[in-house]
Write a structure and sequence with these properties.
Length: 519
């Protein structure tokens, strides 16, 4: 019986948006907001390629999507109902601003930056716990206060001092190689979106020269290390910028400062372009240049005008990343339905619809914890020192990439060893599907869920209200008539009366693509 309910609910949810006989929970007829500069450039490109943009996503889809994309969490039912009841024409823009101001925004985007900057205590990065805590707090504060991105990058590039007391120096420590080539590769990958392996050796050497005088020295404090300018070399240094310009750096000057001045100059062809492309990829699932850290001449942008526009907007806003977030999130391109109008394989790549993709591992386990109540258990294979995580802490707020769980590993949390975006995987696997279907842990979370018990109590024995409550708690929407009928019919079976029917419905929904994916 339970598998039959699962099949009914999953199939209904997957096909609701395209079924002619049922209203779609994914789309609406008219756009709730005006087009902006993003949309002008996307539409022009779609017209050239003979593609039509998708319909506007419904308010129900939008609130779930923007919660997941901005703060890494599902919306509470009360927030969904309030948003759906709101008749103000600018309610989507207001919600975006509210989410960008919430503490969870800083937590979720600190997680993204910690992936990129390899924030990990143990092997092979070996930052050690004290440095991880200092580095993560510094990143979190930068995200929370919206430090301009050029200032953030300058601190990473040019800071010197103790890794415990000057947190951004950990940028140079969080690497498997401390040779100039290794440092240059990390700088290029992180701040320019470039993989140096594709460059000629002479060009790589020219860039590595800027980092040839970075030195590391220990102290008497446990695991403390000083990152500084090596005082030994006395003469001037010849280096070559990535654009081919040569420079002679006087003796005693820090070559990293010279490189930072070149990189952070407005109009630099790498810096603003790279982060604009990366933010787009974070919010839309793929870069305008894809992968976002593989920018090279033979990997051109799918929409050069769009990328140039985002770059100019970022520079004009003095590297305010939240300005870029608002611009993209308020666009019709972002607010499209996930259902393309044409069955073409390039629809998502050209941004003719919102790309459907599975939830991040940390977001998914936090969603299950939010429903089931019991916390996830974390572990560090080499606890140095003993690791303790507060029960109320969300998984997205884990600072250390060494602290993990079986669930996080199975669902694609990145190991933070390379800084590559591809370390994080959101592809579904057979192992993941079998785990969700058969896991005693998942089932126990639902069977013992106080949240679901509250849904049942609020329904007061009314099956229809209970079903609606479960749908709202898990999918942030009301059930369709067909879904309501299927669940009600199942619930009437003697074996699924009372709490068992409610638990089975929740179990079916958490196994649906609609729960597991952002759409």
């Amino acid at each position: 019986m339970r598998s039959a309910l699962l099949a009914l609910v999953v199939c209904t949810a997957l096909h609701a948006g395209v079924a002619a006989a049922a209203p779609s929970p994914f789309e609406m007829d008219t756009w709730p907001s005006a087009a902006n500069g993003v949309d002008t450039r996307v539409l022009a490109a779609l017209q050239r390629q003979g593609l039509e943009p998708a319909a506007p996503c419904s308010d129900g889809v939008f609130i779930r999507r923007v919660y997941l994309d901005v703060i890494g969490a599902l919306p509470e039912p009360a927030a969904v109902l309030a948003f759906l009841a709101d008749t103000r024409p600018d309610k989507r823009a207001r919600l975006i601003d509210e989410l960008l101001a919430r503490p969870e925004f800083a937590e979720y985007w600190t997680l993204k930056w910690c992936d990129l900057l390899r924030v990990k205590a143990e092997f092979p990065i070996n930052l050690w716990p004290n440095a991880v805590q200092a580095y993560e707090r510094w990143i979190h504060e930068a995200v929370r206060t919206n430090v301009p991105y050029d200032q953030f990058a300058r601190a990473l590039l040019t800071s010197s001092g103790s890794n415990f007391r000057v947190p951004p120096v950990n940028f140079y420590r969080a690497l498997q190689s401390r040779e100039p080539q290794g440092l240059a590769e990390a700088v290029a990958l992180t701040l320019m979106g470039v993989r140096l392996a594709s460059w000629p050796a002479a060009r790589r050497d020219g860039l590595a020269a800027f980092f040839s005088r970075v030195a590391f020295k220990g102290t008497d404090e446990w695991k403390e290390e000083i990152v500084c300018l090596d005082p030994a070399p006395a003469g001037p240094l010849a280096a070559v910028f990535p654009d081919g310009t040569t420079v002679a750096i006087p003796a005693g000057d820090d070559p990293r400062v010279a490189f930072a001045e070149w990189l952070l100059t407005p109009g630099n062809p790498w810096f603003a372009r790279s982060i604009a492309n990366r933010v787009w990829a974070w919010l839309l699932g793929r870069g305008i240049i894809h992968e976002p850290d593989d920018i090279r001449p033979d990997n051109p942008p799918v929409n050069p005008e769009l990328l140039s526009y985002l770059e100019q907007e970022l520079v004009g806003a003095k590297y305010d990343l939240q300005h870029l977030f608002r611009l993209i999130l308020n666009s019709r391109t972002y607010q499209q339905s996930p259902l393309p109008r044409a069955a073409r394989r390039d629809a998502e790549a050209c941004f003719a619809c919102y790309p459907v993709r599975r939830l991040d591992a940390e977001v998914l386990i936090d969603a299950l914890v939010g429903v089931g109540g019991s916390r996830e258990r974390y572990e560090s294979r080499i606890p140095e020192p003993f690791t303790w995580i507060p029960e109320e802490q969300r998984t997205i707020a884990l600072a250390d990439g060494s602290i993990t769980s079986t669930f996080l590993q199975m669902f694609g949390r990145p190991p933070r060893d390379t800084g590559l975006e591809s370390e994080r995987t959101t592809n579904s696997t057979d192992a993941q599907r079998l785990f969700m279907l058969n896991s005693t842990d998942v089932y126990k979370r639902l069977a013992g869920s106080l949240r679901l018990r509250r849904v049942a109590l609020a329904a007061g024995g009314d099956r229809t209200q209970a079903i609606r409550g479960v749908y709202m708690a898990l999918l942030a929407r009301e059930p369709l008539a067909t879904e309501l009928a299927a669940a009600d019919a199942y619930w009437q079976d003697p074996r699924s009366e009372g709490d068992q029917g409610l638990t089975d419905l929740a179990w079916a929904l958490v196994n649906s693509m609609e729960f597991l994916y952002r759409h």
